[in-house]
Here is the input.
Amino acid sequence: METRSNHVLVGAVVLILLAMLALFTVWMARLNGPSASDYDIFFKQSVDGLAKGSTVTYSGVPAGQVKQIALFKQDPQFVRVRISINDDIPILRGTTATVQSSFTGTSTIELDGAVKGAPPIVCPQQNRHAACPLGVPVIPTKVSGFGAVLNSAPKLFERLTSLTERLTELLSDKNQASIAGILENTDRLTKALADRGPEIAATLAQTRIAVKQAGDAAEKIGDLAQTTNGVLSSDVKPAMANLNKAIQSAQKSMDTLNGTIQDARPGVKTFSDRTVPEINQLVHDLRETSESLKSIAQKVNQGGATSILGPQKLPDYKPKDSKQ
Here is the structure.
């Protein structure tokens, strides 16, 4: 019994020592290896092919690995991926993360876009919870070209399906018969045009001649317009100058006449106030004189010149003889 107890005790001590040695080795490996920092990435796209332990690269250079993948409880449309990045990799402002998918099924996280001289990505002192909801710095994301293609693949397949259905409807038996009729009519029209080729050529030639004649007529009209402009410039302008001179002379005459009328206005007023009434009286007297002379003339015509000297003497009355 004592021998067995000693063996068990010795075995337990040996196992403990081996465990301690393993822990010491791991601790020493960590001390000798590069230190790492944790970052969170919130993807709104699918992260198919990404798993714990997947590689994280920075511009193609291995930089760390994925530590955890989970839905973000505060907003389940985001997938939270926590990564561990070696401290010798500069994670500066401007750095973005993308999921690089492949047809083999495995995916990696690609980091790039850091700006030279920019500060590192850290959790700020102010508004820390909003910037770092889980206590570690957050690296923003961007959609890669291949990832965008994969994300839009369902919509693309749906559109391809719809296009296929429409093509099937377009190429139905009825539509094929209609297309065949259209092609047949097109063939007939082509043959008819070929048969009428000489007539069409002649028509085109006549059209070309008509266009040329129209061009010549337009050119002649232009020359006529220029000639008309020259005539107007050479003949009408002197006439207009003479007309302007005549108008100016007439204007001067009108000004002189106005001055004369202004000068004569006082005399005209005196003539109107004095002379005109006297003339009226004279006309009245002449009218009365004329009436008197007319009356005398009538008396002379009727009774002779003696009628104006006195009344006409009656003849002596002689009584008739009674015998008679």
User: Anything to note?
Assistant: The helical segments are 2-32, 128-131, 145-151, 153-170, 173-195, 197-303. DSSP finds six helices and six strands in the chain. Residues 33-151 form one domain. The beta strands are 36-43, 55-58, 61-71, 79-86, 96-100, 108-112.
